[in-house]
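Below is the data:
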Amino acid sequence: MVLMEFLFVAFPYIAILVCIVGSIYRYQTNKFSISSLSTQFMGSKELGGIGANLWHVGIFLILGGHFVSFFLTDQYYKLKNSSEIIHFALEGMRITAGIMVVTGLVLLVYRRLVNPRLRVITTPMDWIVLFLLLLQVLLGWYIYLSHLDEPFWFSQNVAPWLRGVFFLNASVPTVEAWYIGVHMLNPFLILLLIPFSRLIHMFTFPVTYVYRPYQVVIWNRRN
């Protein structure tokens, strides 16, 4: 019971605190390490571009669905039960996003494995993060397939615990199996590793690109 309280009550707050403090410290001490190193010129641009696009679009869709189910549980219930068309459309989006993130991650991992120049600049932390992300996605797929007859399983089981964490009132949830517990805690482990990995680049979305002036690029070459 003490272990469960640490994992599901204390650990999420430890991870959030380390993420915030560590990210601020890294930015203050080494801000040029925040962005992710570009690998496009070191390997297949097509393979890397497809994998990165599939991963980023897919994960945004999945996280968006989780947040809707988390913050708007009642509204999500009503929307999904309003008609069979909406129900199947939402399920179709979920399946499509799941396929996108798995395919994108596999392509990105494969690219780093087969390209010797990418392997050289791939750190142990990179492999740890890729493993944790892939584990999270695969466990999510397994839980989804094993709970097909419980379409609101996440809203009824995980969302209440997450709301408790969010509102500083976390309690030990009922965990049916080990893989469900890992799927619930793994995101906080990934969160804890953000200040020490390339994942910190998610905080550097180039918002200024939207309104900054066009850049003038001058090419100097011999005729």
